[in-house]
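Chapter summary example.
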Amino acid sequence: MFDRACILVNPSNGGCRLALRAVVTIAVFIAVEMTVEFATCDLCDANEDKLADGSLAILPPVFRAFGDRLRFSGPARTLKVFEDNVLVRAALETPGEGAVLVVDGGGSLRCALVGGNLGQLAEQNGWAGIIVNGCVRDSAELNACDVGIRALATHPRRSFRKGLGDKDLAVDIAGVTIRPGQWIYADEDGVLVAAQPLG
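The structure predicted for these 199 residues follows.
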């Protein structure tokens, strides 16, 4: 990556140093942006007014944590499917840009909507996390992926592949409505859904 950047800027040594410095600066900026610290407990304490008026909600504590990233946040992108993960794969094949994919799988416990291959896709394409109102599988592989994942349970059976479902709509996750563009904050203590980014 550095060599290509050097050639694009200037083939001279000075140009290489300039390109290298620019690439490193961008990498550091991205790393800082992706590791912003927060705690859901603190966010709740600081936003009791939003909890009261409904602009901040908390998902019920029914989700298990997977993935190597226990703490993640980002704007929601939504899917509604049932025992069919074609749209899940299609979404994760696109650039995530730090978003959280929220999958309303209808709470099905009969098959998995996300497995190790999709976890790797999420990591490679820059998704911050995945929330599945359903099951996942290949848990050991998922736990090696640099992405945050929440799901109801594990299940060894893969889903059907018919391509049925909808995207970019309001979904119901364990009794909480999540709309595209709302902000998700997840850590060891829970998952929050905010109408706007929380300061």
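To summarize the output: DSSP finds seven helices and twelve strands in the chain.
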